[in-house]
Amino acid sequence: MRTRWSAFVAVAALATAMAGCGEQAHRLQGAFILNDTGVDHSESSCSGTGEYADIEAGLGVIVRDEAGKTVGSTELVYDSQSSAGQCVYRWEMTVADAKSYSIEVGQRGAGTYSAADLNRRYWQVATTVGD
Q1: Is domain 23-130 classified as CATH 3.20.20.70?
Q2: Contact in structure between 129 and 55 (CB atoms under 8 Å)
Q3: Residues contacting residue 40 through CB under 8 Å, at least 6 positions apart
Q4: Where are the beta strands (DSSP E) in 49-109?
């Protein structure tokens, strides 16, 4: 019983400290879509070829705040909605509150969104590359 009470107190203290800091976490979700007639597609995987050969499940996604500090990272996950000519990937992560977010998938450049814009988008973004 004492262990449960100690754990409860620790969690409550952490929650209080976080609330005092004004930190708010957001669940950021994304889709990354590659449209290209040369994709290598099967029922369980999809990857780019040629100039898109770097695009595949496991490719890194990094999110930075307005100061350039990394606030989250994850990897692309294959989505079964992929088809011949189109690879679809999903990703998601929790990020701390910031004024803006720069989202970069692999070495494909970054897209920047304000917190207000992401809030209007329900913290969901989609990036499309290719044809």
Answers
A1: no
A2: yes
A3: 46, 47, 48, 49
A4: 60-65, 70-75, 77-78, 86-96, 100-105
* Domain layout of the chain by residue ranges: 23-130
- Longest Cα–Cα distance of the chain, Å, equals 62
Paired residues of 91 in beta bridges: 30
CB neighbour class for 74 (10 Å; exposed up to 12, middle 13-18, buried from 19): middle
Q: Tens digit of pLDDT for each residue in 8-60? A: 334 444 444 444 455 799 999 999 999 999 999 999 999 999 999 999 999 99
- Rounded to two decimals, the pTM is 0.80
Burial 50-70 (b: 16+ CB within 10 A, else e): eebeebbbebebbbbbeeeee
